[in-house]
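Q: What structure does this chain adopt?
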Amino acid sequence: MNQHKQYVCSNLAEVKTAVKNMDIAKIVPLQMDDGGVIKNIDNYVGVYNVSKGKFCTSVIPQYNLIQHREYFVGFAEAMNNLGMKFTMSMSQVGNRAFAEIDFPDNKIELKKLNEKFTSGISLVNSYDKSTGLFVAPRFTRLACTNGMIITSAEKTVSVKHHSKIAQEINSFIETKLNAIINNSDDLQHWVSTSMKDSLEWNSCCKIVEKLFAQMKHREEILKRLGISVVTVTDKKSKKKSVTYVWDDAQKKKAKFTRWEVYNSVTSYLTHGEHITPHIEHLFHKQAQRILMTPFIKLPKAKGI
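A:
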């Protein structure tokens, strides 16, 4: 599978075709050169990415190697058996593979908040121990089609490959699928509380600055709130200072709610260009800090 290329499937047959492009790995023995004598390393084996021709990592002999295609097809087969309509977007970065599953018919309506969502699942697998069998609830806000991955939810799980659970991969998939499908218990609480908590706009900029240090990401997030980042370098000291200004002074707001700031992040992660699956996965964790943590408890960059 080409790095960063995304494959979008809507049925089991399409998933089975797409995963043929995914890397395959295998367990290989490890050896060492002990003064010219080649000796086997009995207490460890290696994971070798056959498709890339590269060594991934060393693991214990009890390690259960789960192929990317095995993991993703397993979920597709389970959904197919349940007669569920789904879309599944898959991509691969390095030794990790990502899948975002949406259930368009499984709608969640929060009438009091005037918000509608569809539910789904986020999956990650790796060949280098950077992640286990990762499963997290995913929601899509229908007003703007922003994706929301809630990794702090109770039903989020990351199982290590050497766990006994990983040996029963089909049972693991069915259990997690059934647990997550209707997992919207906390969604109304998170959304409603984030709508009520507000802060002065420039203080919100400092929170975004602290959570998203890299300038290109911060600029894109704030742009979605109607704010630009201006960087000035002092000629003598060469120190840089950052100022936040409104793009349209007529639309200037006194305050932002956490819900508004959160949606500016998820908008960037969902619709922004050149966002790798790895960065998206990491930034959703930062975004959910905004969704779930009162402004007063979020870290701010120094200065206003």
